[in-house]
Amino acid sequence: MKKVLVAAALAAASSILVATAWGSDKAPAKVSSAAAATIKCGKTQTIAIAAPLTGDAASLGLQQLRWAQFFAAHWNKAHKMKVRLVQGDTQLPNTAQALSVAHQFASNSKILALIGPAGSQEVQDTVNVYKHAGLDVVSGSATRVALTRGKTGTPRETPLGWFYRTVPNDDQQGARVSAWISNNLKKKRIYIIDDEEAYSQGLADQVQTLLNAKPGFHVSRDHVSQSVSDFSSVITRIPSNTQVVYIPWQLAPKAQLFFTQLRAAGKSAIVFGSDGTFAPGTFNAVGSYVSAFPVDFTSAALKAYANQHGGKSEAFGLPSYTAGLVNATAIAKACKDGTASRAEVRKYIRKTNLSKAASLLGFPVRFLGKNAGASQGPGDMAAPADFAIFHIESGGKYVRVG
Amino acid sequence: MTEFSETPGIPEAPEARIGVDTWVAEAEERRARAGGPLALLARGVEAMPPAVRMLVFLAVASTLPFWLNEGDLFSYGLFTLLYATLALGLNVVVGFAGLLDLGYVAFYGIGAYTYALLSSNHYGIHWPALATLPIAMAAAGLVGLALGFSARRLLGDYLAIVTLFFLQAFVAFSNTANPTVAGKGLTGGPNGIANLDPLKFFGYELTSTEQQYFFLLIVFALAATALFFANQSRTGRAWRALREDPLAAEAMSMPVNRLKILAFVIGAATAGLCGAIFAAIEQATVAGNFTVAVLITIYAIVILGGLGSIAGVVLGAIVINVSFQFLAPQSGHPEVKRWLFYGTLVLLVALMKPWYRGAVVLLGTVAFGFAAHAFVAAIAPASWTSGTAVDAGSASTAKAIADWVIIPEGHSSFNTYAYIALVAAIVALRSLKGWWRTAGLIPTLYLTAVVWENVLAPNPAVTALILFGAMLIALMTVRPQGLLGTARVEIV
Amino acid sequence: MHLLLYNIVDSIRSLGWAGAFELLRNGIVLGSLYALIALGYTMVYGILKLLNFAHGDIYMVGAFLGYGVFTRLGAPLSPSLSLVPLLILTFLAAMLGAGGLGVAVERFAYRPLRNAPRIAPLISALGVAFFLENSVLLLTNGNHYNYDTFELGGNPNTGLPGTLFHRVFSVAGRPVTVVQVLVVSTGLALMLALTLLVSRTRLGKAMRATAFDREAASMMGIDTDRVITSTFFIASMLAGAAGVMFGLYVGETYYFMGFLAGLKAFTAAVVGGIGSIPGAMVGGLLIGVVESFAIGYVGGQWSDIVIFGILILFMLLRPRGLFGSRAIQKV
Fold this sequence. Notes:
The complex is a heterotrimer of chains A (about 400), B (about 500) and C (about 325). Chain B has about 500 residues and is an all-alpha fold. Chain B folds into two domains: about 30-325, Orthogonal Bundle (ABC transporter involved in vitamin B12 uptake, BtuC), CATH 1.10.3470; about 335-455, no CATH class. Chain B has 19 helices and six strands. The two termini of chain B are about 20 Å apart. Chain C has a domain at about 55-265. Chain C has helices at about 1-50, 55-70, 85-110, 120-140, 180-200, 200-210, 215-220, 225-250, 255-270, 275-300, 300-315; strands at about 145, 165-170, 175, 250-255. The termini of chain C are far apart. At the B-C interface, α7, α12, α17 and α19 of B face α3, α4, α7, α9 and α11 of C.
């Protein structure tokens, strides 16, 4: 009797699976039909978010997810057309999962727009799949310059018109940081430590190159694994006459640990972080500097976010909010006539024009259509999108100084 | 007699039950094998001759692209085949020869990087796939030879650790060290090498998922057939002898070291081939694809399927990959997952014997739920019951669920306590017996529903891994020898 | 290659004796933690021949339990108890909680597989590891929590080190702090207690007997189930203590910390000779020191490779580990 029951249950479960797989997207639809499909705009639209939700990069992906969910809740309160998020776990740095997520999203005809993926190498590996599916990649954290701007020796890495990012790229951040260190801080003995991830290495490379080019500067470079919490041996290597330690890391808690361990070892160098370490409440290293977008702390949205998350906010996931806004605005415009397709949504993404107050980044958001400046290309945000410098004052307060 | 066996991995004598004669002991083993639906499945598969098994599998697999959409074909079809082929290689090392190789995924990576270096703009080399695939196999095989040769004296767990070091060294080398060769970082560091050429055979490019799927199916069939014949051959018998009792094998003048190295090399070559194909499909390769996490998946497949059994490996790959990809949030259908979860719970309860106990538990849980909900609604502020069920499919279903399950709004510590209480309850249930256990099951089931609605359903990605881990534990405790395993494999 | 060697020599020279002492000190402190976790691995292996891959996650849960009690008592900014009782309570909570968890894991995931082929509990252990890691990820939302003990026992918000980070003594101008002494001495004390337990007490004798031959031990009237449960309890307790000490010394606890620590401790246990208790202790210290010097002299890019290279060479030259016994096989 038991065996019959179990066998029946197994049969039922497998038939559910089969039926689901079959009936879900209305037919064994090939990708191209999902891409070209025009769907009726019901009350709720679906936006996909691809981020590392498990694995060693989960803390980053979850930050992005939280901001995206915050955006969805925020938008749904103020608009009749509701937004629903579908999550995709990309398990960075295992790009095979990112690819699997891309294929799944591509075939899901309900998805009209995409937030993510998070990592630059993920973007490079999956952008062609998304292009084939007719989805724009709108990333809140892929900062590698070559994704939008090719240079001699490094061609542009994404097809034109299919990649946008709501975060300024590595070169922009690196330029601001090195300018601040040399012109404002006027320090010449710099020690750069990257966390062996692509984001960090790109930034570190850029700052190292720029500072090395200036006369009289003494720049050393080191690496430490992102999973390390005990920095004592790395700190031992830092010469005691170092004036600035630049740590463009992704994880703010690690930066805080580094700071306290550095002080515990008796070294008094100034610590300089990047937007990954911008996290009031977590990285509260008094006397340090952080480069990030000119976030406005007095805005109601940021206060609301901090309230929801134990009084702490951070800037790494914030661009995912903006990416969600970009997507939702485009979908709303495309849905004005009652139906929408991915191609229509893409058209409106290209014409994005968000106000400074709406974007939460501290500047209005428009996307470039061609190269601009020394290091920006199509898909980057147009000026005045740039980084600002913050100083951490006593009590852990972040004050914008540049 | 027992062997003095402080060195790990030297097999001890089989656990003979003392005071029982051979026939009784074997009968117990036969009975253990006969029980349960999994055993039915195992016997069914074993009853078919191997050729028929392969043909049936190929026939079913070939139909997949016609009724799965592209995303599902990629995640469920392509990945399963890839992992199955990888697991076949590991099966040779662990299942046939009994060597605990924890560095297997490094060969996967070596194959991938070799293909990447020979088929991209990294160094401007673009060799045809007919050349690069065998070269990738050879490269991985050579490294396997080197590793096998240097580690031939190591036994059991010591071999495991050296191979694990090797894997870590490989990942560190490609991700961090990235030495500069011919003007560029050899492995591309954390960015890896991108823009690889797709596989091209006789002018025919394999760019769509369907094409890649069929190609992989052919590769898998060839690899499985080759390994099947290897297993039937003298070498296969020698491996089995080595696995069962290495000392006796050596005493019978079998070249034990050479057999070990051969197993290593064949496993490495298979992994290298898979790596090259994988790199071509992804059109990129990154060190993060070859970490311990992937190793764990492959091991789970091999062990779950039953060591030493090719059909078992395939079954294991299907079970592990399909369940994992289905549980992952990107596969969609959150409502289906909810009903599957509740359905499984109901089923497990309904299987209690005698049948009326199951009925009592189910009815009791429903009643308990309504009572608890009413109680909390009466004495606690409204926010304790004002939350909504996530991804319920329809508003009425969501409301029905919220009326039964306590879903607070904004009480995050509630989630932590509920989860911990559930784990504690399950552990405590273990020690209860009889009607106490039945009684304890009722609040535990309700708590499970509460935890599902509050904690698990809103976090599908993490839930997938938690359920996956629980599934591994359950499957191993229910059937430790794996689905189709027959041998008691002791690690040499 | 020669560039690498040049860099190493340069680092050695520029760091000098002071730097060398600092690296040695760092290595010994971290090595004590690895040793404690490795002891747990080795004990469980000795008794069940099981590689408990979930052990690192028990360490992680211990760290979290300690953190929970630590912050519940108001630390680090406004502790409601003075330093010593605060630390004792934190340790107790972590050790007992971790011990309980270890016992539960054994009952659920390993006991049913007692007579299965050796590789089956390996997968079960991996399943437990998945389950624990992701449960904590779920409950903490991936957040990293900081014990933040830098100012503990001192004046808050001044940036000056509190009691834990006061200097106890200096060598070559480099300080050794209270917390470092605490970690090493607690580690040594626990290891000593364990050695005494195993060699002098009845339970220890029972453990040794069960490790030697489980069948025979049960025939001699030893309750092997109870012995195995006690072993898991003690092993997990040690891991929990290590977790708390890591939090106090380094500061951080998060869901993924067990993975790397478990891997290193497993390495230490095997390098020292798996199944051997002094082996685990020495192995842990060795790994800690090698790691520290490799990072200090070689620098981030190549340090991992150097560490693994050294370890691989060591294992190839001494296949049974430091204290592992030679295989004597009777037929």
